[in-house]
Amino acid sequence: MIDVISYLPAKRKATSSGWISFNGPCCVHNNESQDRRSRGGLRQQEDDWSYHCFNCGFTASFTIGRPVSYKARKFLEWIGVDSVDIERLNLESLKRKSLLDLTAERNTIKHVDVNFEEKELPEGVELLDSDSVPHQYYIDYLEARGIRLEYPFLVDKKPGVRNRIVVPYTYKNRIVGHTSRYLDNRMPKFINDQQPGYVFGYDLQKPHWTSAVVTEGIFDALSIGGLAVMHDTISPQQIALLKQLKRKIIVVPDQDRAGLGIIDVAIENRFAVSMPEWPDDVKDVNDAVVKYGIVDTLMQIHNNAETSKIKIEMFKKRLQRKINE
Predict the structure, then answer these.
(1) Torsion angle in degrees (nearest 10) through CA of 232, 236, 242, 246
(2) What H or E segment, with its residue span, contains residue 12?
């Protein structure tokens, strides 16, 4: 296999979420000026990798067991990988596919195959730069919400009428959609490009983690490294995706009427539910992070996680009383 990272420029920056940013090699091949602001982003997970340029919009990805695509070939060529090594990678990947097929035939455990279509990000955006003065407006907003800047947020290249923060959706290191959060006071605040069954934050979960916290909103998930269903319920496709994590699922409903539906789904699927006794001004996980900090919020969530159906129903009744007051 090719160690893609070893071919990247020496001047690069790794984030805690797994992305590596560097000057994209693709821009000069796509009628753009040479990237000098580290707008190329690569994420690698074992032998699979995904690349996205937040300047010219070029994307490429590789998954073991699949042929090396045209875009993946071009990207590898641009970073200096020899054509012979690319072809060797292609052959090795196809051999691995045969082995994977044989393994799947022998596997008697039912597994739901979940795939999402790769998508393009909106035009006119660039990677959020913590050192950029024009980006300070967006940085202040995220920091005020207790959200760290490691995630590859995008913002408008030129200030407009409705300035926005774009949050890319990834699944298995591929861009599969996005959320645009507009920062003015008009509605809608969010515009989502979400495929059915998608759960935000899936790629952020670590293999050694024994639990996963599921929230309703995307900023709730971003503030604690959790998952977001981005609805007031959890769809059957999302349930299948969550169960494939093979760890304890802790659902934290918003403390409003919308949270009632998520509680019912959690009970039905034997997920844990956590409803810390937060004050009235704390409506969701992100509010809690702003008030208590990340560590204290996570401790409260885990300490109040309950799997007993009777006790969860008591949580639900308590929430209903709170809503009706």
Answers:
(1) 140
(2) strand 12-14
Residue 77 has which token pair?
């060529």
Report the 10 Å Cβ neighbour count for 176: 20
* Structural domains of the chain ordered from first start: 4-106 (no CATH), 111-195 (no CATH), 206-325 (3.40.1360.10)
Per-residue pLDDT tens digits for 250-259? 999 988 776 7
The closest alpha carbon to 251, from 274, 229, 228, belongs to 274
CB atoms within 10 A of CB 162: 11
Helix ranges (DSSP H) in the chain:
70-78, 83-106, 136-144, 218-224, 236-243, 259-268, 285-292, 294-303, 309-324
Q: What is the pLDDT of residue 201?
A: 94
Please give the model's pTM, rounded to 2 decimal places.
0.68
